[in-house]
Design brief:
Length: 630
């Protein structure tokens, strides 16, 4: 017997999606220090996770990356040759020219022109290489985020707003993109420039060279201090941005409800609060940058002034040549200017580091419903049979907030039987349906399909054999035909049409201006609830599963549409095993068996006729039915 415990740690049941107010709290407060469960998206990343992630996405391009480093090394050698050539010109070429020898000056001029041309060509090559590496990394990050988030359990998606998840794939990846677009070049060139210029300074004049390098210590300390302080600031800024994006996404997704209940002003006030928090964190990040730029430039400028004075004194005393002095002064500008310019890059780097850590956190979250290591095959269906036997064996289930819904639950549904579930909210109807669709795994016991534990069946086999039709069916962007063929993209137009005819959807689809090629609009908003239901049933009919779960399939449509849906349901359910969450008498009439659930137990098991006529039912059952049917 298998048992499993949900791994997620967020304190919400599957029936309670995260709200914008939750996101406000997440943006405002750190993880609960008292040991309470926290949202895993806001938990710290595993140690070294962001570095491992970056190494893994860079793996396929590592040779191209090293080639880019080699190219920029050569480019910097060419670009930084100018001060050396100035020193040679002053010390050697000009005295030679006075002696009527123009060859040294001509050599310097040709060398300088060649260095400029080479630097330009090499920089172009470096940019091409770095852009390729950067875009490959970003593409891989987006692909991993999409695949990993899509593979998460339904419980995870119910607990997090779509905008919060989309922020990882858009806002956080965008922060990494900004670093790759310009930051990588500046970081690499600054490092190469530091090594090259330091070496040349030591060759030109070792005293000034060592003095120049000594000044780098306080500049490095300033940069290190900025990095430590700013990382938390950028993490808070990223969280605040995700909260604002999540609130906006949630508001627009529920715009009909917002307008129906005049929530515009309240939503504007809430978004204004989120926006203020985001602005505050942005301002704090800007203040940290201002402190770094001011302090580092102050140190560098004082150092340059002191070194220029010392060099001038040595030239005047005859211990240093004028050309060497000129070269050193020009190199001092490059030595300090590149690290100082890293201030802007550090801003992008810290934002990217914070975002990369958030991406690593999401990628480290394991789904609570996992694929079997060695999947078992479902037995072949007997001839002339399309349904499978469903069994719940000693099933227990509790949500992550500790609320137990089922305990020791037993149920057997013969192949081809349609069962109606009724009862009050919280009685366990939706939980049974989601366990059968394997949106959750039981915390104890097993759910079996023809004697095979659902946890042993591959997701592909399970989804082709068990299909859940939710209360509000989602239509994706695209045509009506594409939505019907959602689970069978290879279906022919004739097969799609036959499925629509079987469910009664063909009548209204054929009346559309573009027929099956009509665009469904945003989430199918141009269709009524009944029409969306018929399209969903056509989708199921085309897939031809052996088990169907209908979650309150007719509770949101009017009476005329309900009749059309009932007829479609009869045709779709014929011969198949089905679990139907029923709220209407008309739904019960198309089933073979009625189960009344309360507090996770079956308190009545009867036929539809006995139930509708009240034969042999307890007074408690009648009250429960009146409550659920009200």
């Amino acid at each position: 017997m298998h048992s499993s415990t949900p791994k997620a740690a967020w304190p919400r049941s599957n029936d309670s999606p995260v709200s914008a107010d939750d996101l406000v709290a997440l943006a405002a407060t750190p993880a609960d220090s008292a040991g309470e469960p926290v949202d895993p998206l806001e938990a710290p990343a595993p140690k070294g996770a962001s570095r491992r992630l970056l190494r893994s996405v860079l793996g396929p391009d590592i040779r191209r990356l090293w080639l880019a480093v080699a190219v920029v090394l050569l480019q910097q050698v060419a670009a930084l040759a100018g001060p050396v050539l100035v020193a040679v010109t002053i010390n050697k070429a000009i005295p030679a020219l006075r002696a009527h020898d123009a060859a040294p000056l001509l050599i310097v001029a040709v060398t300088y022109g060649s260095c400029v041309a080479a630097a330009g060509l090499l920089q172009n090559m470096f940019i091409r290489l770095s852009v390729t590496v950067g875009q490959n990394v970003l593409s891989e990050l987006r692909a991993r985020l999409f695949a990993h988030t899509q593979a998460q359990s339904v419980e995870f998606h119910d607990a997090h707003a779509a905008g919060q998840l989309a922020s990882r794939a858009s806002g956080d990846v965008e922060a990494v993109r900004e670093l790759f677009d310009s930051g990588i070049e500046q970081i690499v060139t600054a490092g190469v420039s530091l090594v090259y210029v330091s070496s040349v300074l030591l060759v030109l004049d070792w005293r000034l060279g060592w003095a120049s390098l000594a000044v780098m210590a306080p500049i490095y300390w300033t940069m290190r201090s900025f990095r430590k302080r700013s990382l938390q600031v950028y993490q808070r800024r990223s969280t605040a941005a995700a909260a604002a994006a999540g609130d906006m996404s949630e508001t627009f997704a529920g715009i009909r409800t917002v307008q129906a209940f005049c929530r515009e002003r309240a939503n504007e006030d809430r978004f204004a609060m989120l926006n203020r928090r985001h602005r505050k964190e942005n301002r704090q990040a800007g203040m940290e940058m201002a402190r770094y730029v001011t302090s580092s430039r102050l140190v560098a400028n004082i150092a340059v002034a002191g070194l220029v004075m010392w060099g001038g004194y040595r030239v005047a005393s005859g211990t240093m040549e004028l050309g060497t002095y000129a070269g050193v002064v020009l190199y001092l500008r490059d030595l300090y200017d590149k690290p100082l310019r890293l201030g802007g890059v550090l801003d992008a780097y810290q934002a990217a580091a914070a975002s990369l850590e958030k991406i690593a956190v999401l990628l480290a979250i394991e789904p609570t419903v996992v694929e079997p290591v060695r999947p078992a095959s479902l037995p072949p269906l007997p001839e002339l049979s399309v349904g499978r036997r469903v069994s719940y064996e000693d099933v227990a289930f509790a949500y992550c907030d500790g609320r137990e819904v089922l305990r020791g639950f037993e149920l057997d549904i013969p192949a081809g039987q349609t069962v109606a579930l009724i009862g009050p909210s919280g009685g366990g109807k939706s939980t049974l349906a989601k366990l059968l669709a394997r949106f959750h795994d039981p915390t104890h016991g097993r759910v079996l399909l023809d004697g095979i534990d659902l946890r042993s069946v591959s997701a592909a086999d399970l989804r082709s054999g068990v299909v859940m039709v939710p209360q509000e069916n989602f239509l994706f962007s695209g045509t009506v035909a594409e939505n019907i063929a959602l689970a069978r993209p290879d279906a022919t137009p004739e097969e799609i049409r036959c499925a629509a005819q079987a469910t009664g959807a063909h009548r209204f689809i054929s009346a559309l201006q573009d027929g099956y090629q009509t665009d469904v609009g945003g989430r199918g908003s141009r269709f009524s609830a009944g029409q969306r239901q018929l399209i969903a049933l056509a989708r199921v009919f085309l897939l031809n599963p052996s088990v169907i779960v209908l979650d309150e399939a007719t509770s949101v449509i009017d009476i005329p549409s309900e009749r059309a849906v009932q007829d479609a349901m009869r045709r779709v359910l014929r011969g198949r095993t089905a679990l139907v969450i029923a709220h209407r008498r008309s739904t019960i009439q198309i089933t073979d068996r009625v189960l009344v659930l309360a507090e996770g137990r079956v308190i009545e098991d009867c036929t539809p006729a006995d139930f509708t006529e009240g034969r042999g039912l307890s007074g408690k059952t009648r009250r429960l039915w009146l409550d659920s049917d009200s």
